[in-house]
Design a protein that fits this description.
- The protein is mainly alpha-helical and 237 residues long.
- The protein has one domain.
- Strand 2 and strand 3 form a beta hairpin.
- The chain starts with 7 loop residues before the first helix and ends in a 6-residue tail after the last helix.
Length: 237
């Protein structure tokens, strides 16, 4: 965890939460088809950053906007500048393989999205969900040795779909008494909130909301859901 404006108590709570989630086979191997190459975990590097990154920043960094600013759609750019990035999986560069959680943006978003309190702290509820979403990106990037291509409209929907499946798995997981509170266990209230949260994404984030549609349509069939996640992404030709 890098240096942030978090208090020592906040750093402790987030560290406990992430440690409980990191031991992937304990609670999510039934969803993610992990094999020996993962050595028991994915999302090995997690950073908690205080940077207030926007989607305009993210799109610019990833080359998703025209190089010439005169060609930018001004309304599109205006929308991107208002939406905060809550988490990011870095697939290349110096931080390749890292999950970054933008904690100040998460805290701001919690107030807007009425997240239920977990351990008395709503921002931990959203932090966990954002981590699960980014964990899916890490899974997609690492599960094939034949190449990987990020296709935003498809992948963000599948990342939300997978995150909701993982959260549901945590609802079903028996709390581990080694952690007080049981941070590797989720409530039905949290799952219902997460579905509403994903459904509510619109505008440039509309592709994310399709993940809730996938979950509602196919989440009840775990074998089919797992086959769908396993099929994405296809190796590059």
């Amino acid at each position: 965890m890098d240096d942030t404006s978090l208090t020592e108590e906040e750093k402790r709570d987030i560290t406990i939460l992430l440690r409980a989630l990191h031991d992937a086979p304990y609670w999510c191997n039934d969803i993610l088809y992990l094999d020996e190459s993962h050595n028991g975990a994915i999302g090995d590097i997690v950073e908690v950053s205080e940077e207030r990154k926007t989607y305009l920043d993210l799109f610019s960094e990833r080359g998703l906007l025209p190089e010439n600013e005169e060609d930018w759609d001004k309304e599109h750019v205006k929308e991107l500048s208002k939406i905060r990035v809550l988490g990011e999986y870095v697939s290349e560069g110096e931080k390749q393989g890292a999950i970054i959680l933008y904690i100040n943006n998460i805290k701001d978003s919690v107030r807007e999205n009425n997240a239920p309190a977990f351990y008395g702290l709503p921002y931990l509820t959203l932090t966990r969900y954002v981590y699960l979403h980014e964990l899916m990106h890490a899974f997609f990037a690492r599960k094939t040795n034949d190449g990987y291509e990020y296709i935003r409209d498809q992948e963000e929907a599948f990342a939300e779909f997978g995150a909701l499946l993982l959260l549901e798995q945590l609802v079903k997981t028996k709390p581990n008494d080694d952690y007080i509170p049981a941070v590797n266990h989720a409530s039905e209230e949290e799952l219902k909130w997460a579905i509403r949260y994903v459904e509510g994404k619109n505008g440039v984030l509309e592709c994310y909301s399709r993940g809730a549609v996938l979950f509602k349509q196919f989440g009840h069939d775990k074998d089919l859901s797992k086959r769908m996640l396993k099929a994405y992404p296809k190796p590059l030709e």
